[in-house]
Design brief:
Shape: elongated
Strand order of the largest sheet: 2-1-6
Largest sheet: 3 strands, mixed
Strand content: 35-45%
Number of helices: 2
Distance between the termini: 39 Å
Radius of gyration: 18 Å
Length: 116
């Protein structure tokens, strides 16, 4: 379950940023997750919930944005959405030469409440 280790890294990053900004709490975390990244959003959500109990992140709202996978065809150069890592071009039937998106996993933003 690599979602747990990803959640641990997100908690570490959020705590570091909260500390740098004298935050009393983190109210929201926004994450981008690619549709073919191998990250299961609900497993990540559960892991993050477990790891934030009793911390300044405990009540943070988790926003997960799914990034659809896209590829470009070797033969006809058509850009298309992919539902899995290996997919045929819907125009000519070739495999994509390049996966252009959908493998992402990144923290996009943190909303913190600063100490007064």
């Amino acid at each position: 379950m690599h979602e747990f280790s990803l959640a641990a890294e997100v908690v570490k990053l959020a705590r570091e940023q909260a500390g740098k900004n004298n935050a009393r709490s983190v109210s929201a975390i926004t994450i981008e997750v690619g549709s073919i990244s191998g990250v299961e959003p609900e497993a990540f959500r559960s892991a993050l919930s477990l790891l934030t109990e009793g911390t300044i992140l405990e009540n943070a709202r988790l926003n997960i944005i799914t990034i659809n996978a896209t590829g470009i065809c070797i033969a006809c150069k058509h850009d298309f959405e992919m539902e899995q890592r290996i997919e045929f071009c819907p125009i000519c039937g070739s495999f994509p030469s390049e996966i252009r998106g959908g493998k992402e996993f990144r923290v996009v933003s943190l909303v913190i409440e600063e100490d007064e």
